[in-house]
Design brief:
- Strands 4-1-5-10-9-6-7-8 form an eight-stranded parallel beta sheet, sandwiched between helices. The protein has a two-stranded antiparallel ribbon with strand order 2-3.
- Helix content is 31%, strand content 17%.
- Helix 4 links the parallel strand 6 and strand 7.
- Helix 1 crosses helix 9 and helix 8 runs parallel beside helix 9.
- The protein is of the alpha/beta class.
- It starts with 29 loop residues before the first strand and ends in an 8-residue tail after the last helix.
């Protein structure tokens, strides 16, 4: 790493997670970190996401006392057999207008977490933060990217910037380690002109609009993810229907439900190898009741739970015991 990584340690770690003083202290499991800012566009304020991670930490704080309880969304205890290690490193010192520095911080943090054998879980930040996050997953080649989003994000550039939130999947498609892109929940204007849509399909991206999920469930999307592949999930909160997720910058009617989202996460975790997860584009100022923060935090917690229970399943198989995955 070209510089020593430092984090603002969380006052209230996510769901009672351990809060190590250094990435060097990680030993497998999963590591949560926040990246409040990515690559800015001129004239678009990227500061509303600065308080996202703490809003989610606060929303899920009560679950810290229930980590050994049965979770019916998982069909298992929250943290499996209790041996799974969960860390919350805190917030990277990103700055609103420091795009290059922000990208370097995100990539270095992600690479360092992967090097410690842990699964990186990033809380953004706008939809530019996944570009360096995905870029740092080269050790997991060939990588499948599951994007859950209202927008396909295939712009080559916007406002003169090629690394902003409208270009995330196009930039991912250019990364040598990215072999497959599956895009789920797309609807409305989809942040695309016909050219971007055509470019995505020409590259080979699989686009599953939200109405197909509503009509037939998540099966069609999961069938596009080969068994056993390395897969990362990037979840833009605007993929979720506004009735339970109003706290986004670009609300669009007809989004996915909470059960559909966790079914996608579960499907990946049970079928493939979930190697990274990010949750982005949550805007605390648009969540007056705090309920949307709880929904977002529960989704991130569900991803942790799936990783923990996969860990318990693998340990049971190694010990000659049968522990079926739900």
């Amino acid at each position: 790493m070209p510089f020593e990584l430092t984090f603002k340690r969380p006052r209230l770690p996510f769901a009672g997670a351990n809060s190590p003083r250094s990435i060097k202290l990680l030993e497998g499991g999963a590591a949560i970190f926040a990246a409040p800012h990515g690559t800015p566009y001129e004239g678009i304020d990227n500061r509303p996401h600065a308080a996202t991670a703490d809003a989610l930490r606060k929303a899920i704080s009560a679950d810290a006392g229930w980590r050994d309880h049965w979770d019916f969304d998982l069909g298992a205890p929250l943290l499996g057999d209790g041996t799974f290690k969960l860390a919350d490193l805190g917030d990277l010192p990103t700055r609103s207008q420091a795009g290059a520095s922000n990208r370097a911080l995100i990539e270095a943090a992600t690479r360092a977490i992967v090097a410690r054998g842990a699964v990186p879980i990033m809380i953004g930040g706008d939809d530019s933060t996944p570009i360096p996050f995905i870029g740092a997953l080269a050790d997991h080649a060939p990588l499948t990217v599951l994007q859950i989003d209202a927008h396909i994000d295939w712009r080559n550039q916007r406002r003169g910037e090629a690394l902003g939130f409208s270009s995330t999947m196009r930039r991912a498609s250019e990364m040598p380690h990215v072999a497959r892109i599956v895009q789920v929940g797309i609807r409305g204007l989809g942040s695309a002109r016909k050219k971007e849509f055509d470019d995505a399909r020409t590259w080979g991206a699989h686009i599953i609009p939200a109405d197909l999920i509503h009509a037939g469930g998540v099966k069609e999307a999961l069938e596009l993810i080969p068994k056993g592949v390395n897969c990362m999930i990037t979840l833009d909160c605007d993929a979720i229907d506004g009735t339970c997720m109003p706290a986004v910058m670009s609300p669009t009617p007809g989004g996915l439900s909470y059960p559909q989202i966790i079914d996608l996460v579960a499907g990946v975790a049970n079928k493939a190898r979930l190697v990274a997860f990010d949750l982005i584009e949550f805007v605390p100022a648009r969540d007056p009741t705090g309920y949307a923060a709880f929904v977002a935090a529960r989704i991130a917690w569900h991803a942790v739970g799936r990783l923990a229970n996969r860990h318990a399943h693998s340990a049971a198989i190694a010990a000659g015991r049968d522990l079926p995955l739900r």
